[in-house]
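Long-time lurker, first post. I've been practising inverse folding by hand and with some scripts of my own, and I keep getting stuck on stretches where the structure tokens seem ambiguous. Below is the full token string for one chain I'm working on. Before anyone asks, I'm not after the true native sequence, just a reasonable design that respects the backbone. If someone could post their per-position residues I'd love to compare against what I wrote down in my notebook.
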């Protein structure tokens, strides 16, 4: 039996700008989400995470919040949001929001007041520092590139701190008044009926208070902010208070975005009294690049063994900490998984999309599906940097040029890794605006919507969409759900190098998941019994041997009476 109310959930991430437009402006909105709830439900989804819908100037597409308690008019109104909560509830779907509290927008009234007046009480809500030597306070480099310090206009030698874009000033968590204001805001949303939060960039809230420069790690003379402003000693005290003052009071579910967590910290983060219900498993999120933040620096060589070892280790470390992971193939910050993990374009097929879905869906923890993943959407190649919207793509492109890369190489890197790959509008049908809108979409539609769209896939029993619906059914199947939710995890480390496999065991029941992540077939011995619960592509099974064709997958279910 599940011990926590959210452990049986299947979560769907909506990127609201690109999901469904209802008011003809080419931008997705809340009424659009409401109109698609039955579709979401058909995937076996029981919880929706909505990327930020708060008022925002959209420099970082909503992750720059200007008013925590207002809905951005582009997305609708607070009444629309209340309707969404009610309509979702009718369908037994919970809603979680994105909680962005490491920083606000520079347009937030707190920051505007702080900028306008050095004596403003809000100055201490942010991080301002003065230097006398004409230089920034230190050499830390932000996640989106460049210094983390921005000069304050009209105040010589004064700077403010930002981990991400300069329009996203960091909040000063050392200030109890700021923390109280944040807790009150969180509780306001919980009172409204949200079930919890995906918690953005949360391990950045504590910085090293020496604010000291450190040895440069690149030719720009800067050093990554993650060394001095992420997972730093003392972050736990903030996270404990945050949890006690907010989430605990409402039994809310929380999913931490916590890049770079050491295994030794998992107990504190997701153990019995952990700061969060779960954290995302990002163990292989950036496997295809040499450097996750400065990804223009090139591709990494990786193998399916690296990939399986990454998540085997993450799962084992999390189990040892008695915690849970949120399992993801995609999100709004990553390219499409089919383009990322299947390197040869001729194999970027619906079959491979299904095989990848099989790989992560049955892991211990909660599966998160990112909109469009369930129809096998792919990256979309753009011909010029002007076609990109994403602030981090544009920054990476510019840094690459400054670093001596040619514009062709820089564009190639951006096409491969840009966050805009996942942000193209949802492909509901094959019409010009994909059924997403009847006006020009805010970001160009993908070019492959003819074959890859919901309407076509609903009518094709072999489609990726139908497969995801079947995965949802199996997840909630009375017989198998307890195994999927509570079964032990046993990685299969001695399979051929291209095969990712694991077993889940509960009592006498065994679920075996095998995925051949390769254009080559694989053969191996496996003493198996039990029936085929799901199959993708060609898999030949005898009592002792398995032969798997390229990008095939199989899920076997073994019950005691079957021996
Ligand atoms: C992580 C979010 O997922 C990303 O989209 C955003 O740019 C940064 N945090 C900053 O909020």
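-- Answer (accepted) --
I ran through it position by position. Result:
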């Amino acid at each position: 039996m599940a011990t926590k109310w959210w452990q049986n959930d299947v979560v769907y991430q909506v990127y609201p700008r690109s999901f469904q437009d209802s008011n003809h402006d080419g931008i997705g909105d809340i009424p659009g989400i409401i109109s698609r709830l039955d579709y979401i439900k058909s995937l076996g989804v029981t919880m929706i995470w909505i990327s930020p819908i708060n008022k925002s100037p959209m420099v970082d597409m909503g992750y720059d919040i200007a008013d925590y308690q207002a809905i951005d008019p582009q997305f609708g109104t607070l009444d629309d949001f209340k309707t969404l909560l009610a309509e979702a509830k009718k369908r037994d779907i919970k809603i979680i929001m994105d909680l962005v509290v490491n920083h606000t927008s520079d347009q937030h009234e707190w920051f505007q007041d702080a900028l306008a007046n050095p004596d403003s009480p809000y100055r201490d809500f942010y991080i301002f520092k003065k230097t006398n030597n004409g230089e920034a306070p230190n050499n830390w480099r932000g996640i989106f590139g460049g210094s983390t310090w921005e000069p304050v206009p009209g105040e010589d030698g004064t700077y403010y701190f930002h981990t991400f874009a300069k329009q996203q000033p960091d909040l000063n968590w050392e200030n109890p008044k700021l923390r109280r204001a944040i807790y009150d805001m969180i509780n306001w949303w919980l009172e409204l009926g949200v079930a919890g939060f995906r918690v953005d960039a949360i391990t950045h809230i504590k910085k090293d208070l020496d604010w000291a420069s450190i040895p440069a790690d690149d030719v720009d003379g800067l050093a990554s902010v993650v060394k001095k402003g992420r997972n730093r000693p003392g972050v736990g005290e903030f996270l404990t208070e945050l949890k006690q003052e907010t989430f605990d009071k409402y039994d809310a579910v929380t999913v931490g975005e916590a890049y770079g967590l050491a295994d030794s910290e998992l107990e504190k983060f997701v153990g019995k009294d952990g700061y969060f219900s779960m954290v995302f498993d990002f163990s292989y999120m950036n496997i295809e690049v040499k450097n996750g933040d400065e990804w223009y620096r090139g591709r990494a060589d990786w193998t399916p063994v690296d990939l399986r070892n990454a998540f085997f280790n993450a799962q084992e470390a999390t189990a040892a900490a008695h915690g849970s992971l949120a399992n993801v193939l995609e999100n709004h910050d990553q390219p499409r998984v089919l383009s990322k993990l299947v390197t040869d374009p001729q194999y970027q097929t619906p079959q491979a999309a299904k095989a990848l879905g099989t790989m992560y869906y049955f892991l211990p923890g909660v599966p998160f599906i990112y909109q469009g993943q369930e129809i096998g959407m792919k990256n979309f190649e753009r011909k010029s940097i002007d076609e990109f919207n994403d602030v981090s793509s544009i920054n990476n492109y510019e840094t690459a040029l400054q670093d001596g890369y040619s514009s062709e190489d820089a564009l190639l890197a951006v096409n491969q890794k840009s966050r805009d790959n996942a942000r193209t509008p949802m492909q509901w049908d094959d019409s010009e605006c994909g059924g997403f809108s009847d006006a020009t979409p805010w970001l160009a539609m993908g070019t492959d919507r003819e074959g890859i769209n919901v309407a076509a896939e609903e009518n094709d029993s072999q489609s990726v969409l139908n497969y995801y619906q079947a995965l949802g059914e199996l997840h909630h199947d009375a017989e198998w759900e307890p195994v999927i939710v509570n079964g032990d995890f046993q990685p299969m480390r001695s399979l051929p190098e291209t095969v990712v496999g694991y077993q889940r065991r509960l009592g006498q029941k065994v679920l075996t998941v095998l995925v051949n992540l390769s254009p080559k077939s694989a053969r191996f011995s496996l003493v198996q019994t039990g029936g085929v619960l799901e199959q993708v592509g060609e898999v030949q099974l005898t009592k002792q041997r398995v032969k798997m064709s390229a990008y095939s997958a199989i899920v076997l279910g073994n019950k005691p009476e079957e021996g």
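A couple of notes from the structure itself: The pocket of 1-deoxynojirimycin is lined by residues 60, 63, 100, 164, 200-201, 257, 332-333 (CB under 6 Å). The first helix runs from residue 30 to 35. Happy to go over any region you disagree with.
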